[in-house]
């Protein structure tokens, strides 16, 4: 198990380096000069002398390899540089916004998992019945509905008609915990709906598959009750692919909640990434993408370790 964790950790570090390198190079291939964009005012072109001075200050005149080495050195020391737009440290901006995005995603994951695994298991046990059809229909509808549509509908229902939750905004939990939780519910619920659909469908499929295995038939032949079979032999094995999908989905959502943050005016990391890309702010973009990739890889590493704990054969096969 220790060898397996060490191997997966080394692979995770390698993947993070590859992603950061690719993003750094791709950003420098995008047309447009960040210095010129920052100094331009509408249709008025920037002064070439001012642009040249700003490029020197930003270090954009240095060779690409030197910029890359400087960036890697900064990453290793925890310094992601300063924003081209306002000179603010990128680490500070990420540290401020990342917990807000993680809060939405983790709350959504708790809601989706709490509802999805039992409902998926229930649908699998009654496969082909009316409850199975109803749950499958609901999950398909939730999966195919765009997130901005879900967000608009929940605002219309819960904020404008029922008036039980605010439509959007952000208040720090240290300022007003109750208002913070109220503002969190709608964006987290919007994200949870699609995640719930994925987990429900995956739970149903994996439980159905496990129910057909030989060891489950043997457990039935020994006279174990239906509840004992589910608890001891079915759910444990069915959780492995469900956890894998959950880890992938959560990693994707870290940088993919742009529309949710926009609809609910939630100042998270995804919206920050969009504005940084639009401004060609290299330090911000590379810092954000690096943070997202590290979290994505860490989540998948955590899922691999949990899966290996649930089924030791995984660690034996890959170590």
From TrEMBL:
The question of whether Nuclease is a record keyword is answered with no
Localization recorded for this chain is: Cell membrane
Q: Which residues form the ABC transmembrane type-1 domain?
A: 98-307
Q: What membrane topology term does the record carry?
A: Multi-pass membrane protein
Keywords (A to Z) from UniProt: Cell membrane, Membrane, Transmembrane, Transmembrane helix, Transport
Q: Name one GO cellular component term.
A: plasma membrane
Q: Which InterPro entries match?
A: BPD_transp_1_N, MetI-like, MetI-like_sf
Q: Which GO terms describe its biological process?
A: transmembrane transport
Bilayer-crossing regions: 12-30, 104-125, 137-159, 179-199, 238-265, 285-310
PANTHER family to which the protein is assigned, alphabetical: DIPEPTIDE TRANSPORT SYSTEM PERMEASE PROTEIN DPPB-RELATED
What family does the Swiss-Prot or TrEMBL record give for this protein? Answer: Belongs to the binding-protein-dependent transport system permease family.
Query: What is the name listed in the Swiss-Prot or TrEMBL entry for this protein?
Result: Peptide/nickel transport system permease protein
Q: What lineage, starting at the top, does this entry show?
A: Bacteria, Pseudomonadati, Pseudomonadota, Alphaproteobacteria, Rhodobacterales
């Amino acid at each position: 198990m220790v060898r397996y964790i060490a191997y997966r950790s080394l692979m995770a570090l390698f993947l993070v380096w590859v992603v950061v390198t690719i993003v750094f190079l791709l950003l420098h291939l995008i047309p447009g000069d960040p210095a010129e964009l920052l100094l331009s005012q509408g249709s008025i072109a920037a002064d070439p002398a001012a642009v040249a001075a700003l490029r020197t200050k930003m270090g954009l005149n240095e060779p690409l390899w030197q910029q890359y080495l400087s960036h890697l050195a900064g990453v290793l020391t925890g310094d992601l540089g300063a924003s081209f737009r306002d000179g603010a440290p990128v680490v500070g901006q990420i540290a401020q916004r990342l917990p807000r995005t993680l809060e939405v995603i983790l709350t959504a994951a708790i809601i989706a998992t709490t509802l999805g695994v039992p409902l998926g298991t229930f649908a699998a046990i009654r496969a082909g019945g009316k409850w199975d059809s109803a749950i499958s229909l609901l999950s398909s509808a939730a999966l195919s509905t765009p997130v901005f549509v879900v967000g608009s509908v929940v605002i219309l229902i819960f904020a404008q008609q029922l008036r039980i939750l605010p439509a959007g905004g952000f208040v720090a939990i240290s300022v007003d915990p109750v208002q913070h939780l109220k503002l969190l519910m709608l964006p987290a619920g919007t994200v949870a709906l699609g995640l719930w659909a994925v987990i429900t469908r995956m739970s149903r499929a994996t439980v159905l598959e496990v129910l057909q295995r030989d060891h489950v038939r043997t457990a039935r032949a020994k006279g174990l009750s239906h509840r004992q079979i589910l608890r001891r032999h079915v759910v444990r094995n069915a959780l492995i692919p469900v956890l894998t999908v959950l880890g992938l989905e959560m990693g994707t959502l870290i940088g993919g909640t742009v529309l949710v943050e926009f609809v609910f005016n939630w100042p998270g990391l995804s919206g920050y990434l969009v504005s940084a890309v639009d401004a060609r702010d290299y330090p911000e973009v590379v810092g954000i993408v690096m943070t997202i990739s590290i979290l994505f890889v860490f989540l998948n590493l955590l899922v691999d370790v949990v899966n290996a704990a649930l089924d030791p054969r995984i660690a034996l096969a890959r170590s």
